[in-house]
Amino acid sequence: MSAQDLTSWVGKTEQAHEFISFNLLKRIAATFDEPVPGPNEALPLLWHWCFFQEPVVESALGEDGHPARGGFLPPADDRNRMWAGSRLEFFQPLRVGAEASRLSTITQIEEKLGRTGKLLFVTVRHDYLQDGTLCLRDVQDIVYRQATPPKLSNGEALDDGQWSERISPSPVLLFRYSAVTFNGHRIHYDVPYVTQVEHYPQLVVHGPLIATLNLRAFCRAHPQVRVRSFSFRGVRPLLAGAPFQVGGRILGPGHAQVWAGNESGAAQLAHVTFD
């Protein structure tokens, strides 16, 4: 089905409701080795991805472990689905121990021709509200690409940066993050599937997991600032068992560039605004 045939999906909406529960927060905190936030405290940045996940029965999943296509998100033939990046604006924190809602809207569908073949880009805007107030806007770029061998290196060395943290992505970390986000995508935990079907040499680290660790490293290096926005895009995959660095540098007042990668080059590039 071509992008032109998918125009009816533009403007489609979906709403989800969630209680920012202490029980799930304990599991997220254990995954990241972080303190558990208490009642009415701010939800740590990007932990919202662990909430608002609508459970889907196994019979309604596709071969890749994602919900079968053609529901809220459009069908995309037999292409592989990837979360290419996000642009987030933080207006005020989501609070622990309270109800919240998410309104999702498909705002754009566009097909492009890339180096690996046809790419179908679907842009989804997620608005997160609490007590009727917009707390967070997350505009996500979902890309469906034809099955091609993954690009595992870009041949460019990482900048040393002004701060850096070393991450060792174990299969246990990937499994736990899949569990707390209720993410069934098999590339993150199913070795036979990821190596034989999608042709990666090892389990793939989640893009939002990398982004969360990336922004956390910025916040640890600059605990006095308030993050206003965060945008990231994936460049190439990172794999379980291969350590990587998250770090960055201040570009000027209120602006920072951050990244994640290893000796094979950058894997995720991001930008932070703050005050």
Hey, roughly how much beta strand do the residues contain? 35-45%
The share of residues in helices is 10-25%
pLDDT < 50 stretches: none
**Main pleated sheet:** 10 strands, antiparallel
Describe this structure in words.
The chain has four helices and ten strands, in the order βαβββββαααββββ. It starts with 12 loop residues before the first strand and ends with a strand. A ten-stranded antiparallel sheet has the order 1-3-4-5-2-7-10-9-8-6, covered by helices on one side. It is globular. The longest helix is centred in the C-terminal third of the chain and has 15 residues. β8 and β9 form a beta hairpin. With 275 residues, it is of the alpha+beta class.
Throw out a few tags for this protein.
275 residues; alpha+beta; ten-stranded antiparallel β-sheet; 10 strands; globular
Give the helices and strands, then pairings.
Layout: E1 13-19, H1 22-32, E2 80-90, E3 99-114, E4 117-130, E5 133-145, E6 163-167, H2 171-180, H3 191-196, H4 207-221, E7 227-234, E8 244-252, E9 255-262, E10 265-274
Antiparallel strand pairs: 1-3, 2-5, 2-7, 3-4, 4-5, 6-8, 7-10, 8-9, 9-10
Provide a compact summary of the structure.
The chain has 275 residues and is α+β, with helices and mostly antiparallel strands.
